[in-house]
């Protein structure tokens, strides 16, 4: 049977035997060189093969594990003539399993790299797990370069239960081992001190052990070493081992340098203990050394009579007195919870606190309140005191209006505060001397605020039997674990003090260890994970170090509490004559933190003492990187663009890529692909019949609960399966397209797909998305922010109310999102080094080598990287492999082989003619969207109208408020759209979230559904629709616009998809822009909207005439005098889809003035067809100079009444000024007869254009258009009809066409169809029309209409009919 490969071993030990067995179970073969006969026999029993030399052990191996115990073995075992490297082949992996120092390992790697180019080098540290989950199971900590780690990972994973990977410098395992040894050494000495102090105070050591091993003072060392110490089975030689290990750690710290005060004192304690040793008798028990060091006879204490505190508690509570009335002093966080729980347990409770609002709150909860300690003590059976310290306890009992004076005879007091045993003993004596038979129970509590309110505290109670019975029912009501300790009042506080000693030391040692690890360059989050499964762990380490990693010092337990509690320990050790070095140094560390001003912060803040002294940061956040520097540091891209190879491979690969998109933004890198918004078997079957390379299904599952999302994915996958089976040769690969910032239903959707599609060879995780600035480098996913790369877990996206996460490392993200089901150590990766050095074939090889059911993350920093991976994946699929992909958008375009194209503009879609405003709907709440909306409103204030809808009214208000808000928004939007204004409908920007992710999703649904209702109520067809945000864009497309299918045309902006809605939708063909919430900088939305604004004044007269020249038609220039005339021309042009020119004569300008010009310009800007405004017959220099400043697109310089020389000079002057402003210039050579606007030219004054003069005139003046005189006249032609010199026109056209000058014919009124056609054929591109339009206006006035409005309407219709007729005559109709 074929194996996955051979793994060799050079030297064996017990751990490597277990590793070999695990490899064999995973399908590998193993071989080994070992000189120890017992070890090799065990190896052969497992099924391994024996080798005669290290060289032979390295032959034909996939990987070689070298177990090196001493540095002096390396030369012979690895590099010698018979050394392991001699037998290894190129591409094999050398795995060093050793405990030698990190610096030696780093030097070895360098020598290895220099001497051996054939193998990859990885260093591992192998240990047994100590946690409940990994108890006695193999753990491996591996370090090395990312490419070496990636290659070794399958073998490493097969050798162990838990794999930790530290990419980069080798030696991480040895460093972690030192950190773990630091903690174990401190914890051992602290455990000795704690037991000694407790025993000296009269508490049985086994009582201490039993209680502490279930309390916050517990550690792995305490739980596992203390029993051996108490039994005397830990021998003297153990001290020597610890001294050597801790000495090595201190030597390394000194070389850095780095202070380790707790470790230093622990080391000195052990050295001191060795001085009290027993000579050469290494089998002597450590207990004897311990007793000499601390002056406490622990052996005697261990042999004392024992008892079970829980049984005593049961006896006490079973015979407890009835308690009716309880006084309670101290209603702080813990006290309030305890007091209210007593209320719910049917006790009558009278409460007092110095803080009056708390008293009022307690009264509202059903308690009785008093204004002083004395007032709440009248007639009570039991008084509970829960204050901060001894001074407060003294004050409430014996201060002004103190409790003692008011307590009834025979009452009992329960002191639950953490105070010194000496204070309790003294208080007990004072109460006895009061002569009122007052009884004291010493009952310190632990468990926190939540447990206090639930009545599940741990209570350590001590006192007389009478006192305990009197208070038993109260103690029972407050506790889940009740320990009753012998020894009288103070015994409970002794055990609490011992617990606090250990807890404080463990917090401080955790700080020291994590700061040291940070100084060693270790990833502190991974270090924490390793330690929690190792011997250095403790309850406090696991509970408090996460605060350090998160840099969150919100006080769950204030640092000053340990200043107090360890201060109690210091006083007690002095009074009882027990030297406690570790706890005293820990106390000093907490004092240093308090002195620095951190006393009211969380006690984990003690780590700041180390951070401040050394400059290290324990915080487990990944660094923000400089994008340019990181990208420049990467290897050069794979030299060949794989897109053409992908396209070729896709020709042979029949699989269709089916992309299940959890919101519409996933289409942001593709074009000319269809997206379905329904997934019936019929619609899917139709798609498969088209044999597409890809299609999208819009699931919008990100807006659903995880249960609904999973059900939806299953339904779609079942339908896909059914549809594919019904179409011959249909096969497909499913891609779960998700958010590039890692939000969405993972792994729920992947699990759902697998449940229908069957097991896959691997899950592929690939969130790279270039257009959105998402990069994956070294398995860390980054979000680009300007010139920085921010780890995804540190962005606002990671704080998403529904899909939040912490991990930026994708392997750790997988573990986090799967709740540990898929451990980070089992997740493999495709590195950028592999993509850029190995290419598609290396990717294919790596994918094919994955174990079935693996998870693989893909690194990428460029589109080329993505294409290399896609090509490799297709090759693996063609070998029969099946993959389920969870990716961002870039993977899809690479996998399909799409060549990007430029962003699409409105003119590319031909929507410039549409009149209504565009509709922008914003639902996304990410901060980036809010910034983009602010910038949009600021930049586009002139043409944009805004409608803001209230989220509280939509999601939290009454039905009536919701309906009214929806109606208001729809009505306002309708008005703005009809007024041709682009309109933004946006949700109010305050973020409203629920208490749980499901509640937040419900609020999102209410808001999104309201936006759908608003858009459905809008009756005006928008010119385009832009939806901002994934859920918003999906809901609008499917529910508001009723689209079942759309075509992805391309992108409106990089990363912003542009669809055209299908024929079944409300607005077929309308461009639909899907703008993701997390794409683009703050100006992106504004820039896009500005590019989609309906063109205003973009046409010029020159453009119109150029188009006419190309199309062989002419443009009508119609004289206008008033609003009706302007409206008539524009309305005719829009109805006939014709360009047109609004023409103002000096005579009409004299009457209408600037308002007439403004009317024309505004009408031209608002028209849906190209219209320009022209100033006609400028015979006055003054008029023309004014016209240059009034916004005309073109003007006519009329010097026809001047001599040729004067005409040239006059026209040239104006022409030069006009061209500086981009204004087209028309001039007249020759002179027309007739009358226009009271300007009459007699026949004898008329003059034809001289073709010989025309060339000089054009050259001298630089005009753009020439108005010719070829027998045409202004006004009416004679009865005999027009007599045009077409021969002259032909000559003039021959001349002007060479010069790029347009021909213009005035006096077009009355010309026959044939003459018009002939003129157009001979180059006339502009006809001036006036007389017939004027006549139509005047004739309409004689009609029956009496009302002015009706007169205006009739006049407009009459003129419009003439204008429309001329447009058809000139051939311009249908040309806009």
TrEMBL record:
Question: Pfam families this protein is in?
Answer: F_bP_aldolase (PF01116), NAD_binding_11 (PF14833), NAD_binding_2 (PF03446), NBD_C (PF17042), SBD_N (PF07005)
Please report the stretch or stretches of sequence annotated as the Four-carbon acid sugar kinase nucleotide binding domain: 919-1085
The record's listing under Gene3D superfamilies reads:
Aldolase class I (3.20.20.70), Four-carbon acid sugar kinase, nucleotide binding domain (3.40.980.20), N-(1-d-carboxylethyl)-l-norvaline Dehydrogenase, domain 2 (1.10.1040.10), NAD(P)-binding Rossmann-like Domain (3.40.50.720), Putative sugar-binding, N-terminal domain (3.40.50.10840)
Task: Show where the 3-hydroxyisobutyrate dehydrogenase-like NAD-binding domain sits.
Answer: 171-286, 490-610
For molecular function, the Gene Ontology terms on record are: aldehyde-lyase activity; ATP binding; kinase activity; NAD binding; NADP binding; oxidoreductase activity, acting on the CH-OH group of donors, NAD or NADP as acceptor; zinc ion binding
Span of domain 6-phosphogluconate dehydrogenase NADP-binding: 15-164, 325-483
This protein's name = Uncharacterized protein LOC107418532 isoform X1
Q: Which organism is it from?
A: Ziziphus jujuba (Chinese jujube)
């Amino acid at each position: 049977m074929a194996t996955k490969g051979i793994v060799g071993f050079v030297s064996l030990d017990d751990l490597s035997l277990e590793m070999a067995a695990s490899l064999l179970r995973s399908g590998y073969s193993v071989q080994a060189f070992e000189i120890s006969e017992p070890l090799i026999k065990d190896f052969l029993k497992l099924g391994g093969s024996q080798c005669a030399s290290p060289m032979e052990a390295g032959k034909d191996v996939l990987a070689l594990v070298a177990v090196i115990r001493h540095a002096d073995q390396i030369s012979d075992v690895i590099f010698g003539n018979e050394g392991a490297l001699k037998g290894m082949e190129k591409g094999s992996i050398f795995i060093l399993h050793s405990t030698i120092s990190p610096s030696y390992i780093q030097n070895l790697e360098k020598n290895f790299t220099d001497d051996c180019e054939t193998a990859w080098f990885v260093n591992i540290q192998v240990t047994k797990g100590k946690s409940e989950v990994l108890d006695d199971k193999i753990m491996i900590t591996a370090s090395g370069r990312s490419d070496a780690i990636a290659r070794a990972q399958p073998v490493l994973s097969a050798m162990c239960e838990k794999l930790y990977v530290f990419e980069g410098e080798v030696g991480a395992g040895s460093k972690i081992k030192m950190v773990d040894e630091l903690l174990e050494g401190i914890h051992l000495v602290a455990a000795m001190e704690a037991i000694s102090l407790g025993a000296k105070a009269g508490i049985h050591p086994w009582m201490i052990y039993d209680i502490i091993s279930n309390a916050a003072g517990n550690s792995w060392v305490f739980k596992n070493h203390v029993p051996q110490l108490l039994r005397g089975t830990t021998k003297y030689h153990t001290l020597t081992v610890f001294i050597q290990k801790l000495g090595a750690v201190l030597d390394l710290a000194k070389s850095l340098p780095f202070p380790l005060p707790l470790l230093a004192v622990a080391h000195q304690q052990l050295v001191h203990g060795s001085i009290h040793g027993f000579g050469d008798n290494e089998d002597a028990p450590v207990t004897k050394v311990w007793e000499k060091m601390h002056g406490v006879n622990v052996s005697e204490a261990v042999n004392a009579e024992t008892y079970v505190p829980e049984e005593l508690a049961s006896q006490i509570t079973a015979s407890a007195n009835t308690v009716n009335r309880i006084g309670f002093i101290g209603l702080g966080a813990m006290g309030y919870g305890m007091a209210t729980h007593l209320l719910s347990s049917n006790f009558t409770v009278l409460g007092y606190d110095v803080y009056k609002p708390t008293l009022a709150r307690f009264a509202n909860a059903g308690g009785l309140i008093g204004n002083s300690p004395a007032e709440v003590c009248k007639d009570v059976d039991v008084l509970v005191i829960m204050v901060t310290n001894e001074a407060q306890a003294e004050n409430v009992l014996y201060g002004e209006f103190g409790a003692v004076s008011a307590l009834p005879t025979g009452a009992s007091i329960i002191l639950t505060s953490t105070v010194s045993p000496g204070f309790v003993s003294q208080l007990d004596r004072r109460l006895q001397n009061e002569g009122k038979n007052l009884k004291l129970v010493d009952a310190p509590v632990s468990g926190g605020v939540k447990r206090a309110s639930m009545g599940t505290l741990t209570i350590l109670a001590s006192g007389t039997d009478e006192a305990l019975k009197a208070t038993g029912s109260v103690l029972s009501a407050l506790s889940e674990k009740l320990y009753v300790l012998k020894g009288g009042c103070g015994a409970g506080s002794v055990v609490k003090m011992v617990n606090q000693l250990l807890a404080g030391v463990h917090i401080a040692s955790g700080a020291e260890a994590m700061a040291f690890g940070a100084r060693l360059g270790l990833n502190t989050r991974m270090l924490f994970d390793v330690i929690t499964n190792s011997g250095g762990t403790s309850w406090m380490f696991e509970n408090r170090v996460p605060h350090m990693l998160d840099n969150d010092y919100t006080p769950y337990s204030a640092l000053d509490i340990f200043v107090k509690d360890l201060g109690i320990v210091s006083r007690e050790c002095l009074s009882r004559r027990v030297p406690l070095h570790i706890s005293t140094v820990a106390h000093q560390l907490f004092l240093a933190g308090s002195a620095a001003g951190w006393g009211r912060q969380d006690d984990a803040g003690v780590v700041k003492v180390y951070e401040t002294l050394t400059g290290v940061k324990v915080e487990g956040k990944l660094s923000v990187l400089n994008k340019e520097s990181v990208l420049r540091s990467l290897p050069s891209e794979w030299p060949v663009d794989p897109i053409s190879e992908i396209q070729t491979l896709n020709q042979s690969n029949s699989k269709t890529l089916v992309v299940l998109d959890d919101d519409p933004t996933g289409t942001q890198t593709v074009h000319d692909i269809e997206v379905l918004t329904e997934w019936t078997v019929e619609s899917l079957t139709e798609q498969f019949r088209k044999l597409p390379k890809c299609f999208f299904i819009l699931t919008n599952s990100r807006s659903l609960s995880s249960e609904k999302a999973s059900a939806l994915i299953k339904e779609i996958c079942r339908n896909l399966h059914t549809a594919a089976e019904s179409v011959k040769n249909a096969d497909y690969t499913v891609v779960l397209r998700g958010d590039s910032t890692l939000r969405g239903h993972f792994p729920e959707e992947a699990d759902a797909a697998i449940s229908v599609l069957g097991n896959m060879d691997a899950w592929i995780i690939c969130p790279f998305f270039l257009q959105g600035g998402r990069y994956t480098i070294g398995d860390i996913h980054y979000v680009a922010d300007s010139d920085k790369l921010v780890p995804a877990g540190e962005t606002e996206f990671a704080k998403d109310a529904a899909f939040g996460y912490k991990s930026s490392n994708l392997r750790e993200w997988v573990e986090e999102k799967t709740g540990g089901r898929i451990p980070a150590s089992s997740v493999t990766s495709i590195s950028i080094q592999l993509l850029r050095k190995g290419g598609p074939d290396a990717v294919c090889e790596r994918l094919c080598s994955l174990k079935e059911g693996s998870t693989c993350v893909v690194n990428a920093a460029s589109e080329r990287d993505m294409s290399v991976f896609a090509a490799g994946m297709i090759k693996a699929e063609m070998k029969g492999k099946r993959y389920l992909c969870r990716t961002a958008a870039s993977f899809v375009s690479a996998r399909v082989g799409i060549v990007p194209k430029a962003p699409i503009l409105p003119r590319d879609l031909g929507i410039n003619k549409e009149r209504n405003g565009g509709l922008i709907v914003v639902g996304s709440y990410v901060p980036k969207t809010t910034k983009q909306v602010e910038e949009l409103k600021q930049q586009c204030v002139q043409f944009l109208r805004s409608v803001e809808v209230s989220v509280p009214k939509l999601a939290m208000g009454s039905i009536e408020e919701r309906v009214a808000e929806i109606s208001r928004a729809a009505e306002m939007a309708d008005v703005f759209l009809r007024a041709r204004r682009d309109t933004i409908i946006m949700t109010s920007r305050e973020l409203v979230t629920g208490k749980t992710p499901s509640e937040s999703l419900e609020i999102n649904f209410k808001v999104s559904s309201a936006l759908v209702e608003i858009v459905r109520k809008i009756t005006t067809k928008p010119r385009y629709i832009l939806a901002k945000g994934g859920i918003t864009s999906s809901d609008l497309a499917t529910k508001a616009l009723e689209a079942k299918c759309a075509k992805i045309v391309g992108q409106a902006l990089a990363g912003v998809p542009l669809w055209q809605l299908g024929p079944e939708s409300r607005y077929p063909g309308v461009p639909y822009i899907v703008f993701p919430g997390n794409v683009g900088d703050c100006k992106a939305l504004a820039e896009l909207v500005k590019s989609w604004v309906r063109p205003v004044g973009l046409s010029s007269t020159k453009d119109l005439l150029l188009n006419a020249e190309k199309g062989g038609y002419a443009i009508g220039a119609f004289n206008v005098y008033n609003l009706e005339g302007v409206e008539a021309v524009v309305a005719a042009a829009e109805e006939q889809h014709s360009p047109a020119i609004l023409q103002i004569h000096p005579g009409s300008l004299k009457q209408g003035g600037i308002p007439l010009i403004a009317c024309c310009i505004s009408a031209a800007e608002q028209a849906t067809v190209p219209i320009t405004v022209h100033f006609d017959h400028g015979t006055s220099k003054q008029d023309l100079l004014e016209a240059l400043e009034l916004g005309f697109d073109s003007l006519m310089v009329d010097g026809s009444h001047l001599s040729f020389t004067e005409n040239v000079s006059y026209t040239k002057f104006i022409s030069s000024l006009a061209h500086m402003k981009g204004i087209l210039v028309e001039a007249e050579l020759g002179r027309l007869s007739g009358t226009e606007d009271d300007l009459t030219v007699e026949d004898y004054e008329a003059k034809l254009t001289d073709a010989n003069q025309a060339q000089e005139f054009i050259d001298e003046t630089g005009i753009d258009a020439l108005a010719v005189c070829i027998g045409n006249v202004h006004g009416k032609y004679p009865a005999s009809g027009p007599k045009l010199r077409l021969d002259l026109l032909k000559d003039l056209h021959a001349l002007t066409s060479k010069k790029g000058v347009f021909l213009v014919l005035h006096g077009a009124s009355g010309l026959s169809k044939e003459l018009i056609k002939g003129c157009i054929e001979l180059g006339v591109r502009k006809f001036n029309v006036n007389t017939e339009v004027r006549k139509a206006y005047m004739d309409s006035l004689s009609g029956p209409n009496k009302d002015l409005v009706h007169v205006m309407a009739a006049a407009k219709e009459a003129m419009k009919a003439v204008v429309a007729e001329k447009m058809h005559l000139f051939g311009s109709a249908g040309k806009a």
